[in-house]
Design brief:
Order of helices and strands: HHHHHHHHHH
Shape: elongated
Strand content: under 5%
Distance between the termini: 61 Å
Structural class: mainly alpha
Radius of gyration: 20 Å
Number of strands: 0
Helix content: 55-70%
Number of helices: 10
Length: 226
């Protein structure tokens, strides 16, 4: 009987990630992954029952690799530093959403969602997990009076949308250069600034504006309007 190991599983995920990035979901094949990893198809099918399951495992692993620490930080939120914690989280999330593997994954899912359950399953293993953690953090913030009394689930959705607002166009453009660290920090601060201006309780001092960031504005990315 073949023994499955975590190291072998991680190796399969790494090779599969490269194949999906190179070929896209539809054109990627288990045969190509087997050729690169070595062994036989039964080796991979011992870990993953289908290409769909393997792709979801790849995307889940990427999310964990980039976001596990950031999600853990907001999961332990108990009040007192909401703006700082949101800003750190927004920076991590922006960096992940603009990474090649995240952009490619969203493109692949959008292409397959119209004729399969891929979109729903991708949402369940990725965005939905993050939304659940953010929802609980916002529930705490509302109860502590740090945010207006709104549905925490809706607050999580709006915050996530604001963080991605300047970057979702990457799904539709080829070969955009990655944003610089400064662009990521400024975009994250703008998202947090808009969110807190909208949902801070009445009478609370306004959040510092992202426009107060030092330095001249950077030129827009190719494909963006100035």
């Amino acid at each position: 009987m073949k023994v499955r190991t975590e190291a072998r599983r991680e190796a399969i995920l790494e090779v599969a990630s490269q194949v999906f990035l190179e070929f896209g979901y539809e054109r990627a094949s288990m045969a190509e992954i087997v050729k690169r990893i070595g062994g036989s198809k039964s080796t991979i099918y011992g870990y993953f029952a289908s290409k769909e399951e393997l792709f979801l495992a790849v995307t889940e692993a990427a999310g964990d690799r980039h976001m596990a620490t950031a999600l853990a930080e907001i999961a332990e939120y108990r009040g007192g530093d909401l703006e700082a914690r949101l800003t750190r989280f927004a920076e991590k999330l922006t960096a992940f959403l603009t990474s090649d593997e995240s952009v490619s994954a969203h493109r692949m899912v959008l292409g397959a969602a119209g004729h399969s359950d891929m979109g729903r399953m991708f949402y369940d293993v990725g965005p939905q997990r993050g939304m659940a953690v953010m929802t609980e953090m916002f529930r705490q913030a509302v109860e502590l009076g740090e945010l207006r009394r709104e549905d925490p689930g809706l607050l999580a959705q709006y915050f996530g949308a604001l963080v991605n607002a300047e970057h979702y166009h990457r799904w539709f453009h080829r070969d955009l250069p990655p944003p610089s660290r400064l662009q990521i920090k400024r975009a994250a601060r703008r998202a947090v600034d808009v969110f807190l201006r909208a949902y801070a309780p009445a009478g609370a001092p306004p959040a510092p504006s992202a426009r107060k960031e030092a330095g001249p504005p950077e030129p827009p990315e190719r494909g963006e309007r100035p």
